[in-house]
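## retry 2 of 3
previous attempt timed out at serialization; input unchanged, resubmitting
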Amino acid sequence: MKKLLLVFIAAFFFLSCSEQEEGKYTGNQLEFQLYQSSTYNFNGNLTARELVNGSLEFTLRLDGSKTNTDYSYPAHLHFGSYDQKDSPIAFLLNPVSARNLESVTVLGTLSDGSKLNFESMKSFDGHVKIHLANEGPDYGVILVSGNVGPKSAAKFELENLAICGNEF
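## retry succeeded, writing output
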């Protein structure tokens, strides 16, 4: 009898979690590839999911070596293409943890005062870069990058990667 009760409790827990997940999102999402952009062996993706309130949630996931240290890699959404020099930062994304190589950010108002929703994300001219460090010479080391929006379909060419400014 105890085993049967335990099975019912476990089933209830898993069903309630999936119902909460389903109630949080509209089901609309976009995927963008992020490409290795330095000698560090990382690549990844960005998933943009629409929340029921109309906001966007960005999930960054990297593939590469994880560490046990408490370190994180700064991540930015920029205006313009990854090959555009000194492209301004549109939004500071939550840093990617070196432990699990993930980050989740609910997008707010961009640095130009605009706000992205699911439809405008489809046509947004921008890119994402994840740096090795927040400052100093390692800020110039970009672990992964990639265009978002319609330019994401273009072939990624590492030799065209521009070091981005840290200006808004």
